[in-house]
Amino acid sequence: MLWPANSPDLNPIEHMWDELCRQVQQHHPPPANLGQLLQWLQQEWNGDPRAFICNLIHSMRQRCVECLAHNGGHTRY
User: Fold this and answer.
1) What is the pLDDT of residues 2-58, one digit of tens each?
2) Which domain of life does the UniProt lineage start with (predicted)?
């Protein structure tokens, strides 16, 4: 295929990290220290992300189609 091998649009873990970041940012007030941030990251990571992961998996075909249509460039994903 003719797109960059490291396209973030096709790398599901990048989307998982983005979702994890959004979930942690919902905590108010922000973490008081690095230990608390690590605790929140682990808490969110160990949560139940099955629905998000299933949606990500089911969207991969469309991600590939859009990536090809944009010659490996930026897509809406």
Assistant:
1) 655 556 667 788 888 888 889 889 988 989 999 999 999 999 888 878 888 899 889
2) Eukaryota
What are φ and ψ of residue 32, in 5° steps? Answer: -80, -25
Length of the chain: 77
Q: What are phi and psi of 6, to 5 degrees?
A: -105, 30
Q: What pLDDT is stored for residue 28 in this prediction?
A: 86
Which sign, positive or negative, has the C-alpha torsion 12, 17, 18, 20? positive
Cα separation, 51 vs 28, in Å, equals: 24
- Residue among 21, 11, 2 at smallest CA distance from 60: 11
Task: Judge whether 40 and 24 are in contact, CB under 8 Å.
Answer: yes
Instruction: Name 21's Cβ contacts closer than 8 Å, sequence gap at least 6.
Output: none
Residue 1 clears pLDDT 60, i.e. is over it:
no
